[in-house]
Amino acid sequence: MRDRKLNNDKGKSLEDMLAFVDENGNLTPVPPKSANEGAGLHELATVARNRATPHAPPAEPARTGVISFFNTSKGFGFIADDNAKESVFFHANQLLGPVKEKDKVSFERERTSRGYNARNVKPVE
């Protein structure tokens, strides 16, 4: 074991592991020429923010519905959505206030692999 540690030539130096980003956002082993040339940090942040924006899902407006079923012991239930006329699953962790069956609630809907789930469920007054 000591012999392996002494003869280990696998690692690289810090300079060998460094990578730089060019003006097109590609990794390169060559450092930039000067900090004054090319895009500044503010411009790079703007470009990065603009690239990330299309991938964000659009925010859906709050929906309303009536709790059609709620099992307090198991902590889940279903909301009859007023707009879509379908049942939306919710878990007790997503409740923002106390609710019971037949209560009018507002919620946000999110798509999952099993269908839609309700989140931020709160009673409507």
SSE arrangement:
Blueprint (H helix, E strand, L loop, with lengths): L1 H5 L7 H4 L2 E2 L5 E2 L12 H12 L10 E9 L4 E6 L5 E5 L12 E9 L2 E9 L2
Antiparallel strand pairs: 1-2, 3-4, 3-6, 4-5, 6-7
Shape, principal axes of CA atoms: elongated
Structural class: alpha+beta
Question: Total number of β-strand segments?
Answer: 7
What portion of residues is helical? 10-25%
What is the succession of H and E elements? Answer: HHEEHEEEEE
Number of helices: 3
Query: Cα-atom Rg, whole angstroms?
Result: 27 Å
Low-confidence stretches: none
Our estimate of the beta-strand percent is 25-35%
pLDDT averaged residue by residue = 80
Task: Tell me the distance between the termini.
Answer: 71 Å
Side by side, the strands of the main sheet go 5-4-3-6-7
Task: Give the biggest beta sheet.
Answer: 5 strands, antiparallel
Keywords:
125 residues, alpha+beta, five-stranded antiparallel β-sheet, two-stranded antiparallel ribbon, 17% helix, 34% strand
Can you walk me through this structure?
There is one protein chain. This protein has 125 residues and is of the alpha+beta class. It is 17% helix and 34% strand. The protein has helices spanning 2-6, 14-17, 41-52, and strands at residues 20-21, 27-28, 63-71, 76-81, 87-91, 104-112, 115-123. The strands form two sheets. A five-stranded antiparallel sheet has the order 5-4-3-6-7, with no helix packed on it. Strands 1-2 form a two-stranded antiparallel ribbon. The chain is elongated, with a radius of gyration of 27 Å. The model has no long low-confidence stretch (mean pLDDT 80).
